[in-house]
């Protein structure tokens, strides 16, 4: 046995032994073959004869099924003409082999209806015995009384019409005595045609009618049935109503049906970002904006009038509003006993117990902190759930079979819905078929070296262009900062001109974000990727490199220059200025996105069709548009600390962007030339949103709250060294007023003040994600081994059939020799 042990065998690694390595298995196969041949001789009394031409055709047709099911798994021989033939069908099968094959369970479906009816009669009888109490035997008719034969499996014998009708009647009687749920479950599991199942169901219901007539059912039972039906109908109607309330359901189906899952993933990701911003807006509105709006602070008398430029710059009239950090007070908002508003900290002792207070600085600190913490939990949960959905082990063949046989919803009867579902299924089938037929190209060493050089050149161009953009943004931001210092020293400056000059940096960054992806697409065209999904992933990586680099330079500009020395540019409230900068970047990014949609898609389609005379339309750039969404969402997460209403601006932007993009895609874009299925693209989008985007925004916000001193004349933290001291001071006052709550102070000191626990929590999240991915990877390996085991079982079946045929050939040779000897004698 040691000589036969091979570590390269795939089944050995799975802990399974291959039957091809055990001689005892071959002996048992030979014994089984001999027993089947002897049984066939005893039952039918026929001798082994050579098949005629008609049976040969049938055998060849039957063998083609084995050939197609095992294609790619078994060795295929070639004849002299170069045609491929299966060794199993190279010679005609004997009648004994045919009889054994016809008795196999996989060959009985649809051919022996009597055996199937008898088998399911026994199942229904056993099910009825388990689910009901045993009634008296007199209650049964003679045809449905249990028999000893009900406990065994009937062999596949040829039944006459009379016997088949009797079995059908007995099965109908047993189905009639089952509950409706068990009856439908049993009918669904029968290996019969749909017509035969409908006939059995019709016969069962016909016999149920006289038993379930309204005259024999009590009034209470009828009322109970009516109530159950009404409640069930109401529940289904409510579920249908909730399903119809899903946002953009019909539009998403149209996009997915026409352009495939790749373009659809962009709009689903936009919908996900919309829900994140709605959550963030609700939290900040309820705990920050609404309390401050109910207790407005005193505003300066000199306020600028509203101008159209304020909508783009975010300054001017919007400066002293709920939009920005500087408007919020640092007092404890109170409601006195007489119902008058008071924002002072002093109060009369007789009314202290009846007063409602709201610490604005504490609410600001904990609202921002808890909103980020809950967002982190939702992101990690969404990412883990998306991992489980996208990294499934289903092979393309199995997914194709499911789509072909079980993807149609027969409840859809509306014409437009039927056409939409048909288009959607057709697109998904194209994507799956493209994945099935794709082949890995075999390249030689020279060609591989050439492709490696091309990829290296393309990446060098992209990295160089990104570095040039980052350097230009850095020096231009430094120039703008020096310009602000110069204008701050001037006495007479036009405020409108100053606001307009502040739009230069956002315009430059948005312009670079618009032009550089075109260069990346040119580099990808030079690389000639054969797989559209690989090309999309490479474009995602390059665009991500650009966005992250630019955001890093901008964060340094805001927190390292503006916040470090706000007096150099004559800023009273640097938090408000940073909030206005983030607002300008969001608005400018939206404007350039609209320009890209207009010039990059609409005008290019018109130019291509009317000037160049081409029927092709531009393809939708998934990587660029997705990274634009992640870039804007990062700005919104950073800016929520400096502008609590910035998520509302992001919500309006996403709503408008969705309808603009849907209209542009339907009018100006076309489906990809090579359909491809992107089962893992949504997971990649969520992962990029979590780690580079949300993690970077969290680091910036945490650094601002823990390290940078706030402004001394505005905002809820104006008299504190850092924003973080608001929570620390509240805990100290709580411990001073109530010594029994000293545990809260200790918990705050260990969990909040100590950054070690923050890193531990982040590490736990990362470990959970890692273990979840490892579990999915283990499931993938186990399923792959099980699929390989199924394939090996198919090999075993073909080996058994081959051995049956060889036994027949040996017996036929022996019989010929005996006949020749007898004739010679």
From TrEMBL:
One of its GO terms (molecular function) is mechanosensitive monoatomic ion channel activity. Residues 573-679 form the TMC domain. The chain crosses the membrane at residues 264-290, 362-382, 457-476, 502-523, 544-563, 583-604, 681-706, 756-773. It is found in: Membrane. It comes from the Eukaryota. The keyword Transmembrane helix applies. It is a multi-pass membrane protein. InterPro entries: TMC, TMC_dom. The keyword Nucleotidyltransferase does not apply. GO terms for cellular component: plasma membrane. Keywords: Membrane, Transmembrane, Transmembrane helix. Belongs to the TMC family. This is Transmembrane channel-like protein. The lineage of its organism: Eukaryota, Metazoa, Chordata, Craniata, Vertebrata.
